[in-house]
Each structure stands twice: as structure tokens, then as C-alpha cells.
Amino acid sequence: MELMPTAALTQLPFLSACEAWLESRRPYISAKTHHEYKLNIKTLSAFFGELRLQEIDGDLIRAYQRTRKLKCGPFAINHECGVLCQIRKRIGLPVEDYQPLPLPKELRGQALNDEQRARLFRVAQSNPNWEAIYCLALISVNTCMAPKETFTLRLKDVDLKAATVTVQPGGAKNIHRLRRIPLNQEALEAVKLAIARAQSLGATEPEHYIFPFRYRGGNVHVANYDPTRHQTTFKTAWKKLKTVAQIPTTFRIEDFRHTGMTNLMESADVSEEVVENIAGHVSRRMKKTYSHIRLQAMRAALDGIQAKKPAKNETRSRKKPAISTERDQLVSQLSTLLAKLLKTA
Fold first, then answer.
1. Domain ranges of the chain
2. Cβ 195 vs Cβ 210: under 8 Å
3. How far apart (Å, rounded) are the C-alpha atoms in residues 55 and 14?
4. Helices 31-48/58-68 angle, 10° precision
5. 225 vs 303, which has greater pLDDT?
6. 118-142, pLDDT tens digit by residue?
7. pLDDT of residue 105
8. Are the CB atoms for 157 and 168 separated by under 8 Å?
9. Which terminus of the chain is more solvent-facing, meaning fewer CB atoms within 10 Å of its CB: N or C?
10. In 3-state terms, what secondary structure has residue 225?
11. Distance between CA 198 and CA 225 in Å, rounded?
12. Per residue in 47-91, pLDDT tens?
């Protein structure tokens, strides 16, 4: 697409203007951000239709927010409106009275306890149809990788000899999340299983993904797969697995990362620097949550080293130790000398 002057954007229908703006942004944003903006624009254009950019005001944006709230949460809506505000700012007409929706004060993340975790993976392992989600979840919870980071792993990103995986720009949320992660034994076995599955589905080249994309139709055994594209969701399998494993319906695939980070932060021996090296950049809001977990872990560690009080019966049975000081010895000597002087008087 040929780049258009900024002024020309005001003459185009909404979708065309947004696409032209996005093309002008391509050299300055990552491929992942470009893809997300493209999806945002598609959603916005379904509402704003053939309107021109300059015709959209705060009232229309608030109407859009009310409509979208019926289908999604404030995070997604604010992202979409944020893109619209960027475009309006480009043409020199910022939306002065735009207000983003308030975000929930509590983080959505939740962690599995030991019993839930063991039950989930035991159930997932029992059904061949859940092999892919089993591998992805096991990798995520043991490496603190987000779903997109795990989905986009390619054969060349895995070093089985060194037992490491490398998060690439295609999956990382930002440059701070580009990292190399060592694999513990559980994660290594899950990666090996995922690779074996991918190879059976046609993944042979270094650029091929270890979670190949599955076309709709058929089932996991006979459906067609494309290893040059990565899987994007396990929505159906994940929903069924949670039901059978009796996991809360609010637990998301994203929460495997949260579970792994919670487990790390519960260990007083693991520093925040190590956690960030493993998990990548952690936002201030996330650190605030994890600092509470870390405080509890440190309190438990310190409680373990404090002096233990003796039992009551043990206290009674102990004899009070004799205390001998220089002062006591001097008093004793003076008493003896005084007694002798009284006898001779």
C-alpha cells in the first residue's frame, strides 16, 4: 500500500483511513503489535462504518464502549479506543473528552494449588485428545512463559542438548520478554513430547512450529495441520479439560504463567532478579501482587529460625543454674572474715 499524506486520511472512509494509518506505522512497531492493531481496526470499523475520522466524537466513542461491554472487558475496549485516539491524534484532531474505562483493581491472575495442579495434569495426560494442551500447560507452568510465547515456539527455538528454549519477537509481548529459559526435567519432557507430536503432523523444518495450526473440521487425529503456522487456541479442549479435572471455570490458560511465577515468589531463596530473568519483564501491578506472596514466604522462613520456647513441663523440671560472680565471692569472703573477728572479740 502506498503511503498517504496525513491530510488525506480525513477524506477516506473509516476503514480505509485506519488501514492507511496502520501502514504508515509499520516501520515503527513490531509484527505482533501490527497484527493486534489490525484486529482492533477491524472491530472498530464494524461499528463506525463509513464515517470519516473527523466525524467521530466523544459521544460516539462512549456509545462504542457501551456496545462492546456486552461482549468483552475493559482491557480490550481500552486497547481498541486507544488505537482510534492515536489515529485521531495523527490528523491533528485529538479526542479531548475521551475517557478510558476503569480497570478492575484486582488482577485477574490466579494460581493452582498443589492438589489442583496434580489433578489437572493427571486428567490431561489420560486423554490423547488433550495432548497438545497438556504439553503447553506443562511448559508454561514450569517456565513462566505466556501462551503466545509457548504457541510460537519453533523447532529452532528449542535446544534439547542444553535444555533451553528461546522466546522470539513473534511471541514476546515486548522486547523485555525476549529471553532464553532453562528447562527443568518436567518442562523438558513436555517439550520433547510436543516436538514428537509436531513431527508426526509434518513439522520437519527449523522454522516449523512445535504447536502446528489445525484447520477446522475433522478431529485431532485426521484433521489437516499446517506447521508453518502456529496454533492460536485450545478453547474447546481447554473447556472440557477444566470440567473433567474440576478446575474453576475462571482459570485461564494465561494463569499457568501466573501459577509458575507464584511458585517462584513463594521461595525465599529466589530473588526478584532471577524471577524477571525467567519470566521476563514484570509490571508494577504484578510486582505489587507478588510482593505480598514474597512477604508471606519470607515471614515463614524467619518464623522457622526463631528461638523455640521450651514446653511448660520442661520448664518446671529444669533447675535454676547457680550464678557465681565476683561480687558474690567478695560478699562471701567478707562474711567469713567478719564471723572470725566476732569470735575473737
1. 6-90, 114-253
2. yes
3. 10
4. 100
5. 225
6. 999 999 999 999 999 999 999 999 9
7. 65
8. yes
9. C
10. strand
11. 9
12. 999 999 999 999 999 999 999 999 998 999 999 999 999 999 999
**Percent of the chain, pLDDT > 90?**
54
Instruction: Name 117's Cβ contacts closer than 8 Å, sequence gap at least 6.
Output: 141, 259
Please state the φ and ψ torsions of residue 180, each to the nearest 5 degrees. Answer: -110, 130
Cα dist. 343→135, 330, 332, 334 in Å?
98, 20, 17, 14
**Matching residue, cell 509458575:** 260
Q: All 3 cell numbers of residue 6?
A: 496525513
150 burial level (CB within 10 Å; 0-12, 13-18, 19+): buried
Which CATH code, of 3.30.1490, 1.10.150, 1.20.1260, 2.60.120, is assigned to 6-90? Answer: 1.10.150
Which cell goes with 3? 503511503
How far, in Å, CA of 186 to CA of 137, rounded?
11
Q: Are 110 and 255 contacting, i.e. CB atoms less than 8 angstroms apart?
A: yes
At residue 226, what are phi and psi to the nearest 5 degrees? -125, 100
Where b means 16+ CB within 10 Å and e means fewer, 180-218 reads: ebebeeebbebbebbbebbeebebeeeebbbbbbbeeee
Alpha-carbon radius of gyration of the chain:
32
Topology adopted by domain 114-253: hpI Integrase; Chain A (1.10.443)
CA distances from 275 to 138, 181, 261, 280 (A): 18, 11, 7, 8
Q: Is 342 helix (H, G, I), strand (E, B) or coil?
A: helix
Kindly state the cell numbers that stand for 165. 528454549
- Average pLDDT on 206-231 reads 82
State which amino acid sits at residue 287: K
Residues 6+ apart with CB under 8 A from 323: none
